Please model this.
Amino acid sequence: MTSLTVTDAAVRLGGNMVLTGVCVSVPDGERLAVVGPSGSGKSTLLRAIAGFERITEGEIRLGDDIAGTATRHVAPHRRRVGYVAQDGALFPHLTARRNIAFGLRGSARGERNDAVAAAAALAGIEPQLLDRYPHEISGGQQQRVSLARALAPHPRVLLLDEPFSALDTELRAHVRAQVVEALARAKVTSVLVTHDPDEALAFGHCVAVLDDGRLQQAGSCEDVFSRPVSAAVARLLGETVLLAGAKTVRGGFRCALGTLPVKADFSDAASTVVGMVRPTQLRLTTDAAAVTARVTAIATVGATATATVSCADGTAVGVPLRAVGAPLPAVGDDVRITVDGGAVVYPG
Model:
């Protein structure tokens, strides 16, 4: 196993700086998810770690070895870094077995066969699939073959570039779970890039948020999700509810939903502030002390529903509800709403 450390890395492409001052660290055997919008520099960071792009500033280390600086560039094939592309990039004229064995050329036949069998087992590939061609297996199975091919040479670090994006929603979650299990069994340090916040949070031990070529925040998934350093980072990690309000002298945040505890304050000395909560923190209650609001709309999708409610000052928020097992409120009903946990406060 090998740790990965990227320190103050910058990449310039075609005269444009596409990454600036990026610092991330992944301990041995752990998983990092890098999330951000299109054009944020996610894939460029992955390509720099792989050695496909040169960094113009900073340093990349694989364990104790320097893989790249502004003046030193270790070639990709010497880094022992595995790479799983978005489309899998399997060779259509080779069976799954021979695709997995492709990176093992030069090994003895017995060693090669053992490595293929071990990688296929790690990736959860059934033995009967190994002699089929890519067009004879499903998209999810193709992705597992791509993963096995990357794992077979025992890479020091494994990089995954949006490998699930071509799969449909249900299959995507299933294959992602299988890949996470395979990486845990292999105990290989890995980095996933994705634009999907749910995917990032489900994959990683830790998450890094990139935007406009700069690292906005990095840390454990729980900490970055629950305490994002800005409203922009909060939005990149999932749905948000932003509430106008004011800080109280006792350290709370007073808004249309009542006075909430502050779990993180990034507002500095701003004279106006907003508070951020996640929709999942909102719920309806029978507590007489809770804020009263009126239901203005109900939207149901399968087993879930969202009740849009309007508070006394006109603030509208959406409250997620279960659509089965309990009656839903009707439009025009008065309800009471409470917030679990606290708010994160930003400049208004």
